[in-house]
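Late entry, written up from scratch paper. The run itself happened at the end of the previous shift, but nothing got recorded in the book at the time, so transcribing now.
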Amino acid sequence: MFDTLSDRLAATFKNLRGKGRLSDADIDATAREIRIALLEADVALPVVKDFIASVRERARGAEVSQALNPAQQVIKIVNEELVGILGGETRRLRYAKTAPTVIMLCGLQGAGKTTLAGKLAKWLAKNGHQPMLVAADLQRPNAVQQLQVVGERAGVVVYAPEPGSGVGDPVKVAKDSIEEARRRQHDIVIVDTAGRLGVDAEMMQQAADIRDAVSPDEILFVVDAMIGQDAVTTAQAFLDGVGFDGVVLTKLDGDARGGAALSVAKVTGRQIMFASNGEKLDDFDAFHPDRMASRILGMGDVLTLIEQAEQHFEAEQTAKMAEKLLKGGKGNEFTLEDFKQQMLQVRKMGSLGKILKMLPGMGEMKDQIDSIDDKELDRVVAIINGMTPAEREDPKIINGSRRARIAKGSGVEVGEINQLVDRFFEARKVMKQMAGGLGGMKGGMPGMGGFPGLGGGGKKSRGKAQQTRPGKSKGKQRSGNPAKRAQEEAAAEARAAAGADAAFDPANFELPAELKGLLPPDQK
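Output as recorded:
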């Protein structure tokens, strides 16, 4: 949704790079470009004015003029101001001291309240709660039935005593739901109210009556991130007519400019608490202003990526994979079956494009990321499923006839089998090198051999180690200087007592050629 804004800001900051000092003209030009970017993104005009004034004032202050890298300091200022627009710190739900906690949803019709009610309920259930949905939208045709379907998909209970479609009293339903939740021991009640087609006085009064009947702990205003400047107008109308405690953004995966939705928190003084960015019930999470600002500026969102990985990756299975990569050896290799399981776990995290966009620096590869086909993973899984257990265990045995059989069984060309096997071996090699580097550098670094005293490394490194072993060295082993020889013998005894690797002798150690090249001529 914020791709256009991100691109414009990235182009603006690019012009600042390489400048050792920023003049007033540079600051004014940057502020002008940022203002245009925000206005094009549909951010509310009062918000843009305050934002630009703050950025310009801070950019002319000491924090930029005395900075070693003024361009980075300006980006830091813009990031902090964006966080301020989005609400500052992350706002958490307030829970009632005595259950149940009552959460009331309100907003315009078509904003996605009913689906969002199911998403919120599922999110709360995953966090250890027992939510109950309440069908208090008795105006819209089939709204009750829709909530029941959503509740069934989310695996939560739905309280729907009235058929809806114009039949029933929504205030009574909402009030009775509290006692029903206590009876069934639900700790959270989520009340789905009727949407409004606009600033409708009658429907606004109904929402106020429901509020008075259930005394909600949280009133959440659900706003469609794609509706433009009307989001701010409607939010202010609801704030005056009913009041609300927090904002929920829906349809963040859309292609609209979405800047108006970012203005809601600043205009109303109510923070954005949750965001929905897809059609699936899992496409929902708490809203973090700092992370969203980081995404808009193209700096990724690593924390959210880590949280999603922790949710979807099984810790025990991941630990086994890491152990395989670290240990290696015959009978303990990373196999195609392991490769498949890892891909399936990645698939649970959602779209590959969304995952990659959370990585820093991926904004410049937006077109390539958008062209990624998520079905490619399914195709790879189908190919691996077409192999025998022995072939998955040891891909080296996959000869020409086996490849033809696998291709026929999985409905692909033989060339795709060749590509998969080749990519697998390359990936395994890279993962081994990375695992070796992270696991105490036992595997060494690519192209630099192993580190002394830790084993591993390439052939050159092992050869060097063998030359320093007693009795096999071709060079002199003991110094002719009695004092130096005594020091060597004392050092050897200390290493032996500490159980150090005898393969490493400081007297004969030489840096790898790759590292030697980095040293000044007088130190090589």
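Confidence is low (pLDDT under 50) at residues 438-476, 497-524.
(Scratch paper discarded after transcription.)
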